[in-house]
Structures are given as C-alpha cells and as structure tokens.
Amino acid sequence: MDISIAGSELEFDQIAGWKIVGQMLEKVDSVIGLSTGQTTGAMHRMVAELHARHPFDVSQITLFGLDEVNEVPSGFPATCAELLLDEIVRPIGLPLANFLMPDADCGRIEAELQLRGGIDLLMLGIGTDGHLGMNMPGTPFESDTHCTKLRGEMEHRIRSRYVYPEPNPLSGITLGIRTIMRARHIVLVAKGTHKAEIVERALKGPIVPEVPASVLQLHPNCEFLLDPEAGARVRDMA
Ligand code: PGA
C-alpha cells in the first residue's frame, strides 16, 4: 500500500487533481469513479482548472459517481450527480452520455461499467466510521451495487450540510464493496484531523466489515493520499 502525505491542503488537491488528469491523458477512454463530499470538491475543481489551462480531449472518457442519495427531486442541487456535474463534468465539457450514476436499477451501472471495460481509477473518500461510498459499517465485503439506508454519521453529515427536502430517513444507492474492489487502481483521499483515527484503523486495524475501508488492505493497487492532519497517525507508513 502506497501512502502519501501531502505538505498542505493545496498540495493535496493538486496531487489528487493530477492523478485524475494523468489517468485521462494516459488512456483516452478511461473509466473513472468519483466521490462527493468536503474532501473531493476542491480536487474536482482542480481538474477543471488544469483542463481549462491545458485543454485535452475528454470525448471518450467516462466519469461516474460512486453513490447517490434517494428520495430527493431530480435536479435538487445537493444530489451527488448535481455536485459532480457542477464541480467537474460540465466544466471539462464531458459528453453527458459518458457521465453515469447508480440508480434504482442497481444492475444497470454494473453492466455499463463492464461494457466500458471496467473501472480504471476510483477516487474514494472515507467516513469517520470507515464507510466507503454508502457502504456503511457491517456491509458484507461481497456486496454488489445496492440500495442502503443511511444512518449515524453519514445521515447526520448529509442532513447537516444540505437542507434535504424530505423528512423521511435518507437512503441511497452505492457501488458495493466487491464492485469497488474490482477497480484496477484505487486512490483513497482523506483530509482533516477528524479522519486521522479512522485512517489509522483502516490501514493498521483488522480487516473487518465493521470498518469497510479496512478491506482496501487487500487491494493490489490501492494508495492513500492524505493531508498532514489525516495522516498524523500513519506517518510511519508513508
Ligand atoms: P467527506 O465525505 O469528504 O465530506 O468527509 C467522505 C465520505 O463520506 O466518503
């Protein structure tokens, strides 16, 4: 496992942004998975900035979102799809036919990703409870794309960040752990002091479904990119 600790938040965003751009340049029909949240917005905007400065062809690139919240009106600004459209898809001019999101027909995105040759690069965030996408603690490692109820930290985080119109419990659709593990290259990104403990557990703790991110220890081509705060407890591994 390759662990990098960036010197600053800006350096973190630049390294992460270049990893996505590098993949796009290396393989013109790359299939790249993205996550939404506090950690990834700036790196997506970095990709848009790099593309504006040094334009390159993205007509054959596929971008897809790792997960989506259910039960909100389509076009609601805080859906994962809308965030990705704003942060990266529209700014780089990606054809919308090449932008995929998981939906209630869970098999559809699995089939579409296979058709396009499988996932070349998957950028993952991590929750403070170790969730990956919306694979909450306890999700079986052999899960494919599935619907999931959001709870605990994840539900609180989403509700506190955006005003969701529905009062009901939130649910979502997420690529499963098995689908994630099929990606040829995974980069997990984490920023901030509040991520330091879970990063340590994911990297050094037992590989158990209670900490979904711990499964990444088994991936043959996974790296962690951390800012100084998130990497504070794993400096010995960097
Ligand atoms: P965050 O979300 O970047 O907003 O902390 C990460 C995640 O839940 O995957």
Task: Give a short summary of the structure.
The protein is of the alpha/beta class and 238 residues long.
Q: Residue share in helices? A: 25-40%
Number of discrete helical segments: 7
Question: How many E-type strands?
Answer: 10
Q: What is the CA-atom radius of gyration, in angstroms?
A: 17 Å
Q: What would you call the structural class?
A: alpha/beta
| Low-pLDDT sequence parts | none
Global mean pLDDT: 94
- Report the bound ligands by name, code or SMILES: 2-phosphoglycolic acid
Shape designation:
globular
Provide the succession of SSEs: EHEHEEHEHEEHEHEHE
What fraction of residues sit in β-strands? 15-25%
In whole angstroms, the N-to-C terminal distance is 9 Å
How do the strands line up in the largest sheet?
A: 1-10-9-6-2-3-5
Main sheet specs = 7 strands, parallel
Descriptive overview:
- There is one protein chain.
- The chain has 238 residues and is α/β, with parallel strands linked by helices.
- It contains 7 helices and 10 strands.
- It has helices spanning 9-26, 41-53, 80-92, 106-115, 152-161, 177-181, 196-204, and strands at residues 2-5, 31-34, 62-65, 67-69, 99-100, 121-124, 146-149, 171-174, 186-190, 222-226.
- The strands form 2 sheets. The chain has a 7-stranded parallel β-sheet with strand order 1-10-9-6-2-3-5, with helices on one face. A 3-stranded antiparallel β-sheet has the order 4-8-7, with no helix packed on it.
- α2 packs parallel to α3 (80-92).
- The protein is globular, with a radius of gyration of 17 Å.
- The termini are close together.
- 2-phosphoglycolic acid binds at residues 35, 37-39, 125-127.
- Residues 35, 37-39, 125-127 line the site of 2-phosphoglycolic acid.
